[in-house]
Design goal:
The two termini are 18 Å apart. The protein has a nine-stranded mixed sheet with strand order 5-4-6-7-1-8-15-14-13, with helices on both faces. The chain has a two-stranded antiparallel sheet with strand order 2-3. The protein has a two-stranded antiparallel sheet with strand order 9-12. 30% of the residues lie in helices and 21% in strands. The protein folds into two domains: 204 residues, Thiolase/Chalcone synthase (Peroxisomal Thiolase, Chain A, domain 1), CATH 3.40.47.10; 165 residues, Thiolase/Chalcone synthase (Peroxisomal Thiolase, Chain A, domain 1), CATH 3.40.47. By secondary structure, the chain is an alpha+beta fold. It comes from Aquimarina atlantica. One of its GO terms (biological process) is secondary metabolite biosynthetic process.
């Protein structure tokens, strides 16, 4: 088996950062009214700025595949060009269309010759799944390099016009035309952007990061869906997909908006995260929590940070505060791209030194999946 190294990292964040006072104007007011939930959600998540692929006039500037293509091109130079890529593995929770796949669309924009492509589906963990595919391909000797990405273009799913028909339908029914909180919640949580890693079977570059292992766990067998799009949740907890609704109800129910069962999220996201970390440290008993130099948890909100730390401490997997590295407040929650973007920032701090251990931890609330990876600075 080959060793696998992350040798280059890049990110692409579209346009200028958007602060909290600008975001509703950029996404649009629903029924011309200010959201009642916005300030509550923002106060809890403590995100200060985020990025949207939308310009000042409300025009879309990039789709998801274009964001990803931009991040990949930032990996390249004269010594490694896009034509040198052997495998392209692209994860996202917000593809531009159902078919073709996200990676196929990215490849179409790159125009870099014949390569193998892979498009893991899902939400936040799809970026880690993309990374694991590239990692295993190189480790097994199938490829000598791979470009892996995580990206989101969630803003187009959160614009006010997505909900226009639903609000008009509620008015006809003489119901109060207020957007349900499970839909409004994520409008103030998500951000656009893309990150990319170059993986190679040799420790090239300055301070390459060796991928020691990657593990993933799903709890979908015991918990119902929590974050979803392209369907609606029934009273029994099951999801009814868009394809089983009459087409006129797709807009009336905002079926393609991203929705979050906030109660289910708060009940499970931390307990399962810590349960996963306990499993990881039991499996890899040659590494202890105190050996981790930098802990990079992908958290959707600073609301969870203190409770996560306490739960880790109570379960014997405490990693000291000073070893945590998070950039949520500056870039927002970029879903599948977040772990790429935060690692890029850590690398560019110049603080890393040989032998440092970096633990990547990514939860996915769609139906509670978790992915963890250990890196060593070489």
């Amino acid at each position: 088996m080959k060793d696998v190294y992350i040798t280059r990292i890049s990110k692409f964040l579209p346009n200028d950062p958007i602060d909290n006072d600008q975001m509703e104007e950029r996404l649009g007011f629903i029924d011309g009214k200010v959201s009642k939930g916005r300030r509550i959600v923002l106060r809890n998540n403590q995100i200060k700025t985020r990025y949207y692929a939308i310009d000042n006039d409300g025009n879309i500037t990039h789709n998801n595949a274009q964001l990803t293509k931009e991040a990949i091109e930032l990996l390249c130079d004269e010594s490694f060009t896009a034509e040198n890529i052997e495998l392209l593995s692209c994860g996202t929770g917000s593809p531009d269309q159902i078919l073709p796949s996200h990676a196929a669309m990215v490849h179409g924009f790159l125009k870099n010759g014949n390569v193998e492509i892979n498009s893991p589906s899902g939400a936040c963990c799809s970026g880690m799944s993309a990374l694991k595919f590239g990692y295993l391909a190189i480790k097994s000797g199938q490829n000598t390099n791979a470009v892996c990405t995580g990206s989101e273009r969630a803003s187009s799913w959160m614009k006010s016009d997505v909900f226009k028909n639903e609000i008009e339908h509620l008015k006809k029914l003489e119901e109060t035309p207020i957007l349900a909180f499970n839909k409004d919640f994520l409008r103030w949580m998500l951000s656009d952007g893309a990150g990319a890693f170059l993986l190679e079977d040799q420790p090239n570059g300055n301070l390459p990061l060796k991928i020691e292992w990657m593990d993933a766990y799903s709890y979908a067998y015991e918990i119902e869906a929590c974050m979803y799009a392209g369907g609606d949740k029934l009273e029994n907890g099951e999801l009814k997909p868009w394809s089983e609704y009459p087409s006129e109800e797709w807009a009336q129910k905002s079926l393609f908006a991203i929705k979050q069962d906030v109660k289910l999220l708060s009940e499970n996201i931390l307990t399962k995260a810590v349960e996963t970390l306990v499993k990881v440290f039991e499996k890899h008993d040659d590494i202890k929590p105190e050996d981790i130099t930098y802990y990079l948890p992908h958290i959707s909100s600073y609301y969870f940070k203190d409770d996560l730390y306490e739960a880790m401490k109570n379960s014997g997997v405490e990693i000291p505060w000073e070893n945590w590295f998070i950039n949520l407040s500056k870039v927002g929650n970029v879903g599948a791209g977040s772990i790429y973007i935060v690692l890029e920032e850590l690398v560019n701090t110049g603080k890393l030194k040989k032998g440092d251990k970096i633990l990547l931890s990514v939860p996915e609330s769609s139906r509670f999946s978790y992915s963890v990876a250990l890196l060593t600075v070489c």
